[in-house]
Amino acid sequence: MSTQPVRVVRHSDGVVELLLDDPGRGNALDLPTAEALRDAAADVTADPGGAVLLRAAGGNFCVGGDLRAFAGRGADTAPYVHAVASAAHEAVQALHELPVPVVAAVRGAAAGGGIGLALAGDLVVAARSARFRLAYTAIGLTPDCGASWILQRLLGPRRAADLILTNRVLTGEDAERWGLVSRLVEDDDLDDTAYRTAAELAAGSGAALRAAKELLRAGAEAPLEKQLTEEARSIAALAGGTEAQAAMDSFLAARSRGRAPSARSTQEKPQSVS
User: Fold this and answer.
1) What domain range includes position 34?
2) Whether 22 is catalytic
């Protein structure tokens, strides 16, 4: 059994899995775990495959910072917490900047920094058991792991302030209704759904997915005129490539036969662990 709190699992179908693997502690972030997360994210960055799956072992995704590790340090508390946050932030930044799609799978508690980590996913699949709570101000702290940045962009300033200032709990159903997560599934279906989603992305057009992700990133800040220009450049560049031309030919040929192109199977998950 692995003793590493965070592992990277590479599957032969192009899915690279970043696994939080300390379920006995709720995958809480103390300094060794935050540093392991940072190092694992760097490993994934070096070779992200066709898609990344971010998930956690056990009943909780991540309960946030390990308060037992924070408490009782006296004058050393501030530098210790800064070191934890800084390491976790390197991981969040690395995941956010990945060129390939990132799918996050969340069950149970996603609290504190666990929320910022989960929302580094381009797609977030939540189990019905998922519970999202910032909880920072309830213990005299402020958000980290990008929560104050991403929540405003996903939900708008009013709802972001509601979550951050009041520490209200969002159920999985709430999170789907608010637009915090992409889709909601039953707990028993979470791992299969998230993996299948990542595998389908990994099996898709890598160039198109990377370019689409880049457009989404730029479009969050760019004026419409600039974004339209960039969209025209991107679609033209892809259309002239052999991958898109082959895909279009395959689609048209299948349509003429009265059926959609078949997707390759994603059921098997041979893997290696780093």
Assistant:
1) 6-202
2) no
